[in-house]
């Protein structure tokens, strides 16, 4: 029932313009997608150096732009790259925590800092419920509700199947409802 | 808060929430939501989730874009790759030039060694114009002696002849050589017979096979 991706052709045109030497096309693409990438990063638990993360995402994307075949939207591809960078960051942070003998991390511990940040802002029941989801459920919930992505796009970003993405979403929604109801 | 029993509607709620439905589907969904308390509650939950999402910092697009390297254009291609591509486009000319050089080199060497290379020339005379005569030419078939693998001297002789470009070109007159060079200049690609300089070995093998068959 979705109306399909919008602006894809224009993204491609901008990519071609950039390839032809128009650096303003890159700036336009960045301004078009950077805020969404930043929101996704924050919603996924990233709490520092967001701009650096987004910048790394674009640098990597543009340096391998020829591998973008246009089978997905540019935004989906960018989210996929950013997600990998976030996973790398978390692995690196885990190693650093391990070296200073901080308590071992689990899914909830990873986002304690985000919970604190959210608590400092007007914390809502729904946000607490969302934050209590497993990382996978929260990622899928965020992409589906806050980013408005289809299951197909979520599956591409998360490296899973559409069916699995659908199951994760409904489990997440059910968990949030139950948490809010309590 | 319960799940709406209309699975299709429930699936489409996030798309309705994000404005990703067509006009027709939006109208259909809005009509459903008006009469479905569960879907209304779920939409309210989505609104709350979005509004309570942590605030992301604003991105400086110009700053981010400044870190992006320009797309590698043709002028930025490494020199060795450019050379490859240029020769790739000029492959025909390259082959023709190589053929002319080989022919000219052979002519120069033969002219400087013509007095001292008499035995080799005699050997070459035994298999005249091995490299110049087309494979399917009747004269070639007649001039190439049948090599017998059981006779080592014959094998050695044919090997010498197959490697001796000097012998075959030395037999040509100056006029013939000029004609050969002119012909090579006029070629777009080398004729298919050109690599046949080493096919005497193949002939040996064929002879070997023939003798084996027999």
Features:
heterodimer; A: mainly alpha; Rna Polymerase Sigma Factor, Chain: A; Arc Repressor Mutant, subunit A; disordered N terminus; B: 214 residues; mainly alpha; 65% helix; rod-shaped; disordered C terminus
Account of the 3D structure:
The complex is a heterodimer of chains A (182) and B (214). By secondary structure, chain A is an all-alpha fold. Chain A has two domains: 7-102, Rna Polymerase Sigma Factor, Chain: A (Orthogonal Bundle); 106-182, Arc Repressor Mutant, subunit A. In chain A, 71% of the residues lie in helices and 0% in strands. Chain A contains nine helices and no strands. Chain A has helices at residues 8-19, 23-43, 50-63, 74-99, 112-120, 125-131, 135-146, 151-158, 162-181. In chain A, helix 1 crosses helix 2, helix 2 packs across helix 4 (74-99) and helix 3 (50-63) packs across helix 4. The longest helix of chain A is centred in the middle third of the chain and has 26 residues, at 74-99. Chain A is globular, with a radius of gyration of 18 Å. Chain A starts with 7 loop residues before the first helix and ends with a helix. Chain B is mainly alpha-helical and 214 residues long. Chain B folds into two domains: 1-50, no CATH class; 91-213, no CATH class. Helices cover 65% and strands 0% of the residues of chain B. Chain B contains twelve helices and no strands. Chain B has helices spanning 7-17, 23-35, 37-51, 61-66, 79-89, 91-112, 118-126, 138-143, 152-163, 165-170, 174-186, 199-213. In chain B, helix 1 (7-17) crosses helix 2 (23-35), helix 1 packs parallel to helix 3 (37-51) and helix 6 runs antiparallel to helix 11. Residues 120-164 and 206-214 of chain B have low confidence and may be disordered. Chains A and B meet through helix 2, helix 3, helix 5, helix 6 and helix 7 of A and helix 1, helix 3 and helix 4 of B.
């Amino acid at each position: 029932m979705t109306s399909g991706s919008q602006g894809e052709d224009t993204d491609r045109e901008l990519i071609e313009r950039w390839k032809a030497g128009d650096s303003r096309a890159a700036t336009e693409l960045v301004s078009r997608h950077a805020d969404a990438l930043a929101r996704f990063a924050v919603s996924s638990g990233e709490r520092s150096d967001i701009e650096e993360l987004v910048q790394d995402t674009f640098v990597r994307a543009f340096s391998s732009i020829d591998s973008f075949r246009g089978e997905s939207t540019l935004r989906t591809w960018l989210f996929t790259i950013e997600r990998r960078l976030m996973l790398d960051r978390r692995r690196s942070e885990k190693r650093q925590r391990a070296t200073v003998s901080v308590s071992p991390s689990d899914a909830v511990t990873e986002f304690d800092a985000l919970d604190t940040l959210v608590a400092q802002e007007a914390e809502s029941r729904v946000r607490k419920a969302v934050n209590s989801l497993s990382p996978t459920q929260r990622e899928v919930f965020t992409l589906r509700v806050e980013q408005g992505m289809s299951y197909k796009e979520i599956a591409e970003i998360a490296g899973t199947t559409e069916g699995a993405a659908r199951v994760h979403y409904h489990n997440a929604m059910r968990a949030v409802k139950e948490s809010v109801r309590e | 808060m319960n799940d709406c029993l209309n699975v299709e509607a429930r699936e489409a709620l996030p798309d309705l929430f994000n404005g990703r439905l067509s006009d027709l589907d939006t109208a259909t969904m809005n009509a459903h939501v008006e009469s479905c308390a569960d879907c209304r509650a779920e939409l309210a939950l989505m609104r709350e989730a979005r509004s309570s999402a942590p605030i992301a910092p604003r991105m400086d697009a110009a700053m981010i874009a400044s870190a992006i390297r320009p797309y590698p254009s043709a002028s930025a291609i490494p020199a060795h790759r450019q050379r490859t591509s240029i020769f790739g486009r000029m492959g025909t000319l390259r082959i023709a030039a190589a053929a002319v050089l080989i022919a000219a080199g052979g002519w120069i060497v033969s002219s400087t060694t013509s007095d001292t290379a008499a035995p080799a020339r005699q050997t070459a005379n035994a298999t005249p114009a091995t490299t110049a005569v087309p494979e399917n030419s009747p004269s070639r078939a007649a001039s190439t002696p049948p090599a017998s693998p059981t006779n080592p001297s014959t094998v050695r002789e044919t090997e010498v002849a197959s490697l001796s470009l000097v012998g075959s070109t030395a037999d040509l007159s100056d006029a013939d050589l000029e004609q050969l060079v002119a012909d090579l200049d006029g070629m777009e690609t080398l004729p298919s017979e050109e690599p046949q300089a080493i096919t005497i070995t193949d002939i040996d093998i064929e002879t070997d096979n023939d003798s084996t068959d027999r």
